[in-house]
Amino acid sequence: MTAKQGTASAKNYTVVGKTLEDINADMMKKGPPDPNDKKRFSGSCLGDLELKIASGDFDFKTTDGSSPIEVTATLKGGTIACNTTTTMPKLASDKDLSVDAKKEWKRFLSKVQVHEDGHADSYFKLAKTISDDLNTISGKGTGKDEKTAQVAAAKDLTTQISTKLSVTNSLSQQIKDDAKAYDAKTKHGATQGAVLDTSIT
Q1: What is residue 41's three-state secondary structure?
Q2: Residue 146 CB: number of other CB atoms within 10 A?
Q3: Any bridge partners for residue 11, and if so which?
Q4: CA triplet 23, 11, 29: central angle to 5 degrees?
Q5: In whole angstroms, what is the distance from residue 78 CA to residue 4 CA?
Q6: Which of 8, 33, 113, 167 is most buried (most C-beta within 10 Å)?
Q7: How many other CB atoms sit within 10 Å of the CB of residue 155?
Q8: What's the whole-model pTM score?
């Protein structure tokens, strides 16, 4: 089982305003809602973890001298793909902004991007942690022959993985928890400079 970077898509929403204060107000009306507290922010990075385990991803080891035959199953393959969707604001026109305001808008955008990229990095670290954890699980099965025991062992391992990733600890819940922790640590990007200085005119 390994973690891998999946799809990374980006989209924009258009904001308007003659001043930074106007633009900021428009962002707060149109910006993407946070998946945890439902408030709107200037940008977002949503994550999705996609687990894939195929029949060829199991490794089987038969216990010597066992009767009935006992087999232990572990993962030798499989992937957790980390997919992300980043949403950023796009200014319809900066023609009414002063030189200083244009400079501040560019600075702000770059810092929002840093914050959202940090979400994506954190999601991928989470995917790696989960894949490492799943690699430590093993399933056991017995049967009249090796093939029957292997099927039983694979089923046991699959059940254990499903239980581990049950509702309260589902991949989607872990993503939400990760986003919440990162936003708490960075104050939704404020500690990274992702706050528009609306006092600049």
Answers
A1: coil
A2: 13
A3: 87
A4: 30
A5: 10
A6: 113
A7: 13
A8: 0.94
